[in-house]
Each structure stands twice: as structure tokens, then as C-alpha cells.
Design a protein that fits this description.
With 87 residues, the chain is mainly α. The protein has a single domain (3-86), classed as Rna Polymerase Sigma Factor, Chain: A. Helix content is 72%, strand content 0%. It has four helices and no strands. It has helices at residues 7-26, 29-46, 56-75, 82-86. Helix 2 packs across helix 3 (56-75). This is RNA polymerase sigma-70 factor, ECF subfamily. Pfam families: Sigma70_r2. It comes from Nitrosomonas marina. InterPro entries: RNA_pol_sigma-70-like (IPR039425), RNA_pol_sigma70_r2 (IPR007627), RNA_pol_sigma_r2 (IPR013325). Keywords: DNA-binding, Sigma factor, Transcription, Transcription regulation.
Amino acid sequence: MNDDLNPQTWLDAHGDYLYSYVFLKVKDRHVAEDLVQEMLLAALTANENFNNRSCVRTWLTGILKHKMVDYFRRQGRVIFSEKRCLD
């Protein structure tokens, strides 16, 4: 298996970053862990679609961002992007 598509490599190389990224947004350790796990499952099922147009960290962060948006929608919270807030 290509190391770029190996989930253990994803966690070893990017796990701390991904967890920190989501934890800063959701402010709950358990939710952050759950969202990272959901992201890993989604990435596993979609890894055939990864075509090296971006680095693995960018790809995983994009998936995690979508999982976070889904979480906030389920919670009924509104997310404002920094750009919109600054306009």
C-alpha cells in the first residue's frame, strides 16, 4: 500500500495537527476525537479518489472540515468564516 494512503501513516504524520485543528473549533475532547475518527473512516472509503493534487494533510483537513460542519449543523450552531466576520 502506498504510504500516502496508509491510515497509520496519516495518524502518525498528521494526527496531532488534525486533533488540534478540530479541538480548537469544538472545544470538547470527546467530540474532537469522534470527528477525527469519522474523518478517518470517510478518508478510508474515499482514498481511491485521492489523486495527489494536494498533500495528504490538506485532503484530510478538508474531510475533517466537512465533518465539523455536519456536526455543527446537527447541533444547530452557526459557523461564521473569518472572512465573513471581517467584512
